[in-house]
Amino acid sequence: MEPVKKSRGTFRAFLVLAAVFVLGFVFGAGAILLGIQKMTRRAFTDAPEASLAVDRFFDRVEARFSRRLELTPEERAVVHDEFSAAGKEFKEDRHGYLQAVKKLTNDTINRICQRLPADKADAFLALAKKRLAPWGIEIDQEAPRAGSETAHSSGYKLDATWKPGGAGRWDYMEEDPAAGRLYIARENRVQVLDTRTGALAGEVPGLNQAHGIALVPTLHRGFATSGSDGKVIAFDLATLQPAAAPITAGTKPDAIVYDPKSNRVFAMNGESHDVTVIDPAAAKAIGEIALPGAPEFAAVDGAGQLFVNIEDKSLVVAIDTAAMKVTQTWPLAPGENPSGLSIDAAGHHLFAGCRNQMLIVLDDATGQVQATLPIGAHVDATRFDSGTGFAFSSNGDGTLTVAAADATGAFKVIDTIPTKFGARTMEVDPNTHAVYLCTADFGPPDANSNGRPVPVPGTFVVLRYVRSP
16 pLDDT exceeds 90? Predict the structure, then answer.
């Protein structure tokens, strides 16, 4: 029997397990966990005995696995080889792994506190600090609150919570700043809110798995992707009713954007790996652009270029919107599985939010990676506000990451704002600089949710964050 091939993926699993052990110890988890705690506490501190503690940890785990599974000598040798290799690799980069465990623990406690009532969050945080201190793990935040009204270093604070309600999940948001309207994709419709009052102004009907919205104010039209039936729905911005027959797109259209330079609408088709090009005046498809993988989000520079994230290949492609062809393909490494994409057209920066918790800043002319910034988990949108110079990443773990360029022009994270679990999509008003996020309360997964928590009907909210004067 050949030894299992070793990879650093083993340690991703180890880090998760380690954080679970650490958090489990906050509340106590029986004799086994106490035994692990006794053997490994030194490995989580800077004690000289750390190497011995690591050896004992892996020896004990190996012994328990072998006994309980009644392994043959050959099978036990495989387990021994793998745990020995794991211990060796862990000791070689012990500091890096322990920092990752500490970060994961902090992030988990941060999310728990956001989802608990204020009094319970305070009690949980106090207990976590007390029980984790002997491990050398410091909890580096006060208990955050969903809906906190405290201004952060970026100047942002929660200003309003709107409750349009309704059942169903949500996806992208799009704002018409001049009209004061916020459009939100909601499964079988698009909800439209008045950004002055938060009131529900109306809904665009007739969608099946709504994803994205693009607005063409000069034609008084909007376009929304209907993912499950492969259509794009054109609607009137005044009446919110259909403005033309449904437009046939590719398979599973998702994000959609309008390019004013070419006066064309571009729908990204996630499963057919192409872009449908639409004439917005005629409300008809006029072409397709083949892509090297599954597109996620897109951004235009206003000068005739469309940039698209390729989620499954971790790429960004540049497209000539007049010629309707791909002109450049750039890797996002070390970013993986990009979702959100936005642009600083004047500064020639692209901001790609990646699901391995990185915000990748690229040069939009060369594709060169200029910065790799840490963000929260489950990002689904990024935005750039040219008025403030802030780049945003909205993360489903309940955080909003804010980055900005320093005096040298290098982008740095300047703020991480607690929001609410599930607030993964976003819009930014270019005039008022308000940031809009949306989410809901969640119940347990059901048979149709693929293991995802299910939004509780009637709890959908829009959170508006504004900058302090």
Answer: no
Cβ burial of 31 (10 Å; 0-12, 13-18, 19+) is exposed
Q: What's the CA gap between 197 and 53, in Å, rounded?
A: 59
- Report helix, strand or coil for 280: coil
CA dist 231 and 128 (Å) reads 50
Of 293, 413, 442, the residue nearest 353 (C-alpha)? 413
Structural domains of the chain in order of their starting residue, each with its CATH number: 9-135 (no CATH), 156-467 (2.130.10.10)
Please state, in angstroms and rounded to a whole number, the distance separating the CA atoms of residues 355 and 371. 16
Of 438, 406, 401, 403, the closest CA to residue 417 belongs to 401
Contact 228, 249 (CB under 8 A): no
pLDDT band for position 204 (50/70/90)?
A: very high
Structure tokens at 48: 């000289």
Q: Tell me the Ramachandran region of residue 220: left when phi exceeds 0, alpha when psi lies from -120 to 50, beta otherwise.
A: left
The structure tokens 């489903």 sit at 396
What is the largest distance, in Å, between two alpha-carbon atoms of the chain? 75
Cβ(36)–Cβ(22) below 8 Å = no
* Helix axes of 118-132 and 94-115: crossing angle, nearest 10 degrees: 160
The span from the CA of 265 to the CA of 372, in Å, is: 31
Q: Is the pLDDT at 208 greater than 80, yes or no?
A: yes
